[in-house]
Amino acid sequence: MKLRTEVRDDVFIVTTNRPEVRNCVDREIAEALSGFDADDSLKVKVLTGEGGYFCQGADLKEAGYGAEAVALS
Fold first, then answer.
1. Of 3, 19, 49, 66, whose CB is crowded by the most CB atoms within 10 A?
2. Residues 6 or more apart from 28 whose CB is under 8 A from it?
């Protein structure tokens, strides 16, 4: 599984599992994070990674192939 989202009370958690690219952020992950903005009852957004890696940076390979910039709010 590449991506998992869950809500615990008022906390929105997005967990990535892409250790082969050090869990960098791609379009799918950025879209999942936008789920936080759609729910006014949520107070905290958490991005975390599995497999021993965490990266809050964009997937540069995706960006290099003409994908729009990935913006995190």
1. 49
2. 2, 3
